[in-house]
């Protein structure tokens, strides 16, 4: 009876590990895809901004410009500004890829895992601040061609940035909890 | 102040090899080596029970407390 129960538990454990490996592999591929596609999306979005359907256009442009057509220089500036959080997202997908790659190798509680989660938390916190900076610089870039007196510089904090900040701190907390789990796991290896 | 593991002594007394004992008690040779070399941080009561059963000894024959390092 006991052996049968142990065998069932072992089988369920193997299935669970196999599921984790499969999902991690898919997520790693998705992260890699985002890493390469994101800059292309940002560049394409601003490059073809004037040709985009109304629904896809930036709310900021509509809010601050009477003429919805953006000149080339403005669009280049918008690409540069949008790449600030873009680069952060790309970096976070790198960290996530690394983490999922470890999960694929069934490494769950190593120092590397903890380091990736901690870096991810820190980058999400940085993302919240960089998003505020992005909004400010984007408004400036959009209105840069306006006549003097009609250029804008605005700083705004919204629920998105606050949510990112909160999520970042939660991830950093997870990293600390994971570090404790790592210590316990290391000790577990020396329990005979 | 340390707990000394006298598993080697008991194995020699019973003329048993480490791998045989590991197989009997259902742990890996690597884990038994961790125990023998004193690197183990803890030993499960069930493991101790199996060792004692197969080596026909008492826990005190395997674990020894000493004041010196």
Instruction: List the helices and strands of chain A in order.
Output: HHHHH
Sheet-strand content of chain A, in percent, reads under 5%
Radius of gyration of chain A: 23 Å
- Tell me the Rg of chain B in angstroms: 11 Å
The total count of helices of chain A amounts to 5
Structural class of chain A: mainly alpha
Strand order of the largest sheet of chain B: 1-2
Largest sheet of chain A: none
Rounded mean pLDDT score of chain A: 89
| Basic shape of chain A | elongated
Order of helices and strands of chain B: EHHHHHE
Largest interface: A-B, 4 and 12 residues
* Largest sheet geometry of chain B: 2 strands, antiparallel
Fraction of residues in H or I helices of chain B: 55-70%
- Oligomeric state of shown chains: heterodimer
Our count of helices of chain B gives 5
Q: Give start-end ranges of low-pLDDT stretches of chain A.
A: none
Can you tell me about this structure?
The complex is a heterodimer of chains A (192) and B (69). With 192 residues, chain A is mainly α. Chain A contains 5 helices and no strands. Chain A has helices at residues 2-47, 59-64, 72-104, 111-143, 159-188. Chain B is mainly alpha-helical and 69 residues long. Chain B contains 5 helices and 2 strands; from the N terminus they run E-H-H-H-H-H-E. The radius of gyration of chain B is 11 Å and the shape is globular. Chains A and B meet through loops of A and helix 3 of B.
Fold topology:
The complex is a heterodimer of chains A (192) and B (69).
Chain A: H1 2-47, H2 59-64, H3 72-104, H4 111-143, H5 159-188
Chain B: E1 2-5, H1 7-13, H2 18-25, H3 29-36, H4 45-55, H5 59-62, E2 63-66
Antiparallel strand pairs in B: 1-2
Give a quick rundown of the structure:
Chain A is mostly helical. In chain A, 77% of the residues lie in helices and 0% in strands.
Keywords:
heterodimer, A: 192 residues, mainly alpha, B: 69 residues, 5 helices, 12% strand
């Amino acid at each position: 009876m006991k052996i049968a129960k142990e065998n069932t538990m072992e089988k369920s454990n193997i299935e669970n590990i196999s599921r984790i490996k499969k999902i991690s592999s898919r997520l790693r591929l998705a992260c890699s895809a985002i890493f390469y596609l994101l800059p292309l999306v940002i560049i394409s979005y601003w490059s073809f901004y004037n040709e985009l359907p109304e629904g896809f256009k930036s709310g900021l442009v509509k809010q601050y410009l009477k003429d919805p057509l953006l000149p080339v220089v403005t669009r280049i500036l918008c690409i540069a500004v949008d790449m600030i959080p873009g680069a952060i997202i790309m970096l976070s997908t790198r960290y996530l890829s690394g983490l999922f790659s470890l999960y694929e190798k069934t490494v769950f509680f190593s120092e590397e895992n903890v380091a990736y989660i901690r870096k991810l938390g820190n980058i999400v916190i940085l993302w919240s601040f960089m998003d505020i900076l992005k909004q400010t610089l984007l408004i400036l870039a959009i209105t840069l061609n306006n006549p003097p007196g009609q250029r804008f510089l605005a700083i705004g904090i919204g629920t998105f940035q606050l949510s990112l900040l909160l999520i970042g701190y939660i991830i950093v907390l997870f990293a600390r909890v994971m570090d404790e789990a790592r210590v316990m796991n290391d000790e577990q290896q020396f329990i005979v | 102040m340390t707990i000394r593991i006298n598993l080697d002594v008991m194995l020699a007394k019973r003329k048993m090899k480490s791998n045989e004992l590991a197989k009997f008690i259902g742990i890996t040779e690597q884990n038994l080596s961790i125990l023998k070399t004193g690197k183990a941080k803890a030993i499960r009561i069930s493991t101790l029970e199996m060792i004692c059963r197969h080596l026909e000894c008492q826990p005190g024959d395997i674990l020894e407390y000493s004041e010196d390092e």
